[in-house]
Each structure stands twice: as C-alpha cells, then as structure tokens.
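Record type: ASSEMBLY
Status: queued
Input:
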Amino acid sequence: MTTMMDRPASTPGHSAPKKALIERLNIFTAFGLGIIGAIVFWYLAKAILPANTDGSYIKSNRDQYVLLAMIGWLIGFMTGIGALVGPFRWLLGKDLSHEENLFYAGKDQGVKRYFRYTTDHKVVGIQYLVTTMVVFFVGGVLAMLIRTNLGHAGGGWLQPQTYNAIVGMHGIIMIVATIIMVTGPFGNFIMPIMIGARDMAFPRLNALSLWLIIAAIPCILSSIFLGGIPTGWVAYNPLASQGPPGQDGYIMFICIFALSTMVAGANITTTVIKMRAKGMTWNRTPIFIYGVVASVALALPAFPFFFLSQVLSAMDRATGSTFYDTRGGGSGWLYENLFWIMGHPEVYVILIPAVAALMEMAPVFTRRPLFSFNMAIMGIAGISGLSVLVWAHHMYTTGWAPLLNGPFMLTTELISIPTGLLFLVLIGTLWRGRLWMTMPTASIYALLWNFMIGGVTGIYLSDVPIDGALHGSMFVTAHFHYTLMGAGLTGAIASLVYWFPKMTGRMFDKTLSWIGFWFVQIGFNIAFIGMFLVGLAGQPRRVGSYAALFDRGNMITTGGAYLIMSGMLVLLYGVISSWTHGAKAPMNPWFAKTLEWSVPNPVPLENFDVLPVVTSDAYGYGKAQS
Amino acid sequence: MSVETHGHVNPHHEHPDVVGSRNRLGLILLLVADIAFALGVIFVYFYLKGQNVNDMWLPKASDTQDATVPVSSMGAWYVTIIAAVGLLFHQYALAGVKVKNQTQLVLGSGLAFVASLAALIYQGILMNNVSFTITMGAYASCYYLIAGLNVVHLFLTSFISLGNWNRSRLGLYVSDHWHVRIVSVWWIWMTISSLLGAFALSFT
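Status: finished
Output:
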C-alpha cells in the first residue's frame, strides 16, 4: 500500500501524484458511502428476506428493511471515514507508519483535520464540542416546540401523535447530549494535558468514539420521517414494539451510542491510569480527572444493559422473537429492569463530571485550596457505588417486586449522603475565599441552588408513597431538569467559558457570558418552578393538552423556556463571535495551577516538548511552596 | 501545580512492555463492557425461564403450532470445547513466542484460527438445525440470543486469530510479543463466554 511519504514529490510539467487512500477519506466520503450502504442493504433486504407470513405477533418486514438499511449506513459511514483502515492494516500485517500516524494526527492539515478521522485528542475535543452544540441545538428546538404547544390549555397546534414523537425525540437527544457534554469536549481536549500526557492511550479508538456518535445522529433524526418515537425517551416495551419504524431509528441510535461510550470509557480510563505524568500521584491528580473517570467507568458496565435492551427490542421487531411480548412468554418488566440498570447510573454519568469541573474551578476563582480533597473523592466514589443499586425506584408503580420497594427507597435516599459531601466541598471552598467573580464562579452558586432543588425533590420521589402520587406527573419532569440541566448543563457551560481560552486561543466574551448566564438561570428557575407547581397539582407529563386549571403554571413555564432560549442563543453567539473575533488569550488567563495552563496557545501537536514531572498538588493557592 | 521540566523525552519509542501493559488494560476494560453484556444475556435467559409468563417459556402444541422442544445443550458444550481447544492452541503459540520459536508460534496461531473457524461454522450448523423458530416462545428467543452472541464472539475471534497468524507468519512478533499476549486475554474471555452460554442452555 502506498503511504503518503512514499510518493515522489511533484515536479513542474508532471501530473499531480495520486493520493493515498487515507488522504482521500473524510466526512464527505463517509456520508457518501453511508448513503450507498443504506440503499444497498435496503434493496438486498427487500430482495432476499421472505415476506412475513409466519404469524408472529410483532415482526414486520418494514422494520427488517429499516434496521438493515441503518446497519448498511453504519458500515458504509465507518468505511468512508477510514475507521476500518487500522484494523485491516493490522490484519494484513502492514501497520501504520510513523508518517501515516502523523497524518492521522492531523499534522499540517489546517481546518481539514476537523473533517477527517483525526486522532489528535485536541481535534477530537473540538469535534465533540461542535457535535454537542449541534445536538443541543436540535434538542432545544424540539423543547421550544413542546413548550409552545403547551402555551395554552386545551392543546396547541401539534397533533397528539406528533407531540408525543417530539417529546420522545427531545428526551433521548438531550440525554445523549448531556452525557457527552463534559467528557466529550473537555475530557478529550483538556484531560490528557491536565495529566501531563501527549495524547490519549488509544488515539484511533478516540476518533472511533467520536465518529460513531456522528454516525448515530442521522439514525435518530431519520425517526422524524419514520413516524417518530411516540413512547417517550424510555421507549418502554411492549409499547415500543408496536411503534412506527421511527423506533428503529431510536434502537440503532442507542446501540451505536452505547458502542461509542464503551470505547470512550476504556480509552479514558486507561489514559488516566497509565499515562499520568511522573509524580502525579492519586493525591495530586486534579479532581476533574476523578469526575471524568468516575463517569466513564460507571458507563462501562452500565451501558451494555441499555445496548442489550435495544438488541432485544430490535429482535422482537425484526425477527419475531418474544422477549417483551407476554403472549410469547416475554415480559415488559424485563425491559424496564435492563433499561433502568443503565438509566439511573446514567444520571450520575452526566452529573459527576459537571460537578467535578466546577470543583476544579472553585479553587481557581477563590484562590483557596479545594476544601477536603479526600471528601470530594469519597463523595464521587459513594455516588458511583450507590448509583448502581437504585434502579428500581423508577419502577415502584409498575408492580414489579413490591417487597423490594423498601430496600430501593433506602439505597436511593442513602445517595444523598455522598451528594451532600460534594456540596460541602464546594461550600467549604467558597467559604471566606477572595472571590474572583466570573461567569464560572457564578455557575458554582447556580449549581448549588439548582442541584439543591433537584436533590431535595429527588428525595421526595424516592419515597414510595409520594412517588405513587407524583409518578408520571410534571413534577418528575421538573425534578430531573433541575438535576440534569440545572446542575449538569450549568457545569458544562461554565467549563466551556473556563477552558475556551485553551481550546480556541481566544477569551470568551465576558459580557455575553454574563448576559447568557442570567437569561438561562432566571429563565430556568421560572420555567421549572412553574412546572413543579402544575406537577404537584396533578398535570401528567407526555400529554399535549391539559385542563384550564393548569393554565397559569404552563404560561409561566413557557415564558421561562423562551428566556432560556434567548440566553442560549446569546451564548451560541458568544461562542461564534469569541472564536472568530475574540481577544487573544494569554497562556494562563485564570492563573490556575493545573498542567493544561502550562502549555502555550495553540497547544502543540504533542502538548509538551518535555514531559512534566509533578511535585505538588494543583490546589496550593496561598501556600508558600506552591 | 509545581512542575519540573527535566522529565524523560522520547515519546515515540516507548518500551514495548509499557505499550503492551497499556493495551492489555484497555482490552480488559473493553471486556468489562462485554462481560456486562454477556451477563445481561444470561440474566434474560434465567429471568424469562423463571417467570414462564403465560406458560410460554416452552409452548405446548396448539392447532397452529408444534410444541417447542428444547435442544440438547451438548451442541453448545461442543462449541465451547472447540473454543477451549483453540485457546490451548493459542497458548501453545504464546509459549512459542516467549522462547522465540517461530515455527511453534506460526503453527499454534494457525491452528487457533482453524479452531475458531470450526467453532463458528459448527455454531451456524447448530442454529440451522433446531426444531423451532425464534418466534416459538421465550426459550426459542433466548436460544437464538445466546447462540447469536456466540456467533459474534467467534466471528471476532476468527478475525483476530487470522490477523495473529498472518502477523506471526510475517515475523512481526520477533522483537516484542505483547499482541499475542493480548489476543490470549480475548481467547480466554471468549471461551468463558461460550461456557456461560452452554451452562445456561443446560437448564431448560
């Protein structure tokens, strides 16, 4: 195989040399081959598969064609982006040369490297950032459609089925966006530099995790044209088995995303365990690193259950198996267990890195050491450990194993103890600190406020009798928005502003960051306090119309939602304008002590000329020896 | 964070043991996910068997359908035995590379590839010859799930074993052999996974 370095240099009068295969592959070839793959698999399925005449309950040819077309899309896309080059070169015994690895790292390729299977962790971090913002934008538009429809009593302008489909799409898109919003951009760009490494442990797996997500996005978006996801984001079976082909888009989206998460989890964990700088003992490892590792390590054993739940769902729909169909010996409780074994740890997969990022910023903006580093680690470990033992609190009202309701209530309420430790760490760090009031600093306060409301209402919902009254109401919706958005997204946006100078070489516009912050936080609290009120009064979730008595609360919520949207648009404008025209950032604008601020802007290809040796922790503010 | 700048240089030529150790940990972490998935599959089998919803774990004969008769688990055990033999061949290859015996390495990895292929084909034959279809009750669904997981694992094993044999043949493991050790980790897990499936299918 020709490598890019084997080719002779072009000389005047001669035609340009032929490009090597790896130089030809990019996002356009990926989409091209992906579409071809989908079409080929669709026609093959139609030509080969027999018509459904065996009398199975759920199986349909339509689902077979759609699922196979999406598998064809995935194979074509990953071939087109170049993900299969490495494995097949390994098989053939023709390992990538040093020059080819440099090409994959994006060396001297300018902006083109962002559209290729580039392995440099900084490029992957930026790709994740843009991908996350695009996914949030789509989810946000769907959120505004929901709130606009709920603007007045008696239903809005959306058909009930369309409304349900939009709610389902919004839910799953936002869940995935919040899962990747911190570990994706900042876990990839910042984390390796923060631990003093030159790159991730497995750069090609790093690119694989990113491009799998990009391949998954069209699957979920295609659901819009295939009848949507009328089941809500949980896609409970056997209801989902009877859904339109849009459910197949959901299934493929989750399966591909789960693969991406497993790959990213193994990669990030290995990087942190094996590649920390000399002298960076576990006591000197920044708290953000603990947050990222806890998040991905939690996802590693949890997401396969989600993956499995969707494999079974696909088999029911496409082959006529009866895993979830009681008429054939299946059980809806099986789905619920598999789903929530992933579903509750996932909340902490989202929350922990966002809170850890704010704990990383707190010492910087208070110029004080992190209050009780060990307590922070105990908090993270405690939450991670308990989070896998609480899943059935989502199933109190289903009738599954009523004898276990008590134990699950206990484990769920126990989780408030390690969560409280994280609160103590943040408050202890802020206490009597000399505050440098930036937008990330204000975000710490916002997190404490929002997470407190989300946490306390979570304790109510973990209580079996109260859950019986509130389950399926808007109260639940408000509760998880307070945790995932009020705490998680607040931490992610603060992370963006904090690490923006290192990632882009420019400062985030201060005024815009403040305007965006206040619009989002005020709008958020208006929107979801209103939602708590209507939820307490009994308004069910996932219903496109409501009685007149809920009118005022919904009007407040919709008003708050528009305020959030305004703030988000300001922040989006802030990202674009700061990235293109912002003030040039100095190497260490926050005077922070973690390693990422010791490398110049833009960060060199291999981060460090000489690998650092760490001699103290990152929080020695106010100490003479630091 | 205090930093000294006289650390070690030379990022591109790490010691093979360092690279191997990193890769081994990476594979083990990936296996954590695969183990979770496989245990999930076993959970599904025993959960649905235990529930026996509507007495449809093994449906009885009706006007429209024959009774579902469970297959003998011996077929699944034979697949596991072939996989175990493949693992032994691979271990033989690993022992060869450790003492720099190229012939033993090539022979062992080649035989391991043949074993993985044989197990894959035999698994396919077993699936083709059962007396029920996937739609005939929860046991039938679970049988295909377990067999399907075996097929995926064996397909991956065949791919990896083929690459391993080819690389052995080309003499790429002369200077360092961490690839062979890592493939060994995969073989061990694949055999255990097959064994778990056979174990589950022994309870009908």
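Annotation: Strands of chain A lie at 613-614.
Annotation: Chain A touches chain B through 72 residues (CB under 8 Å).
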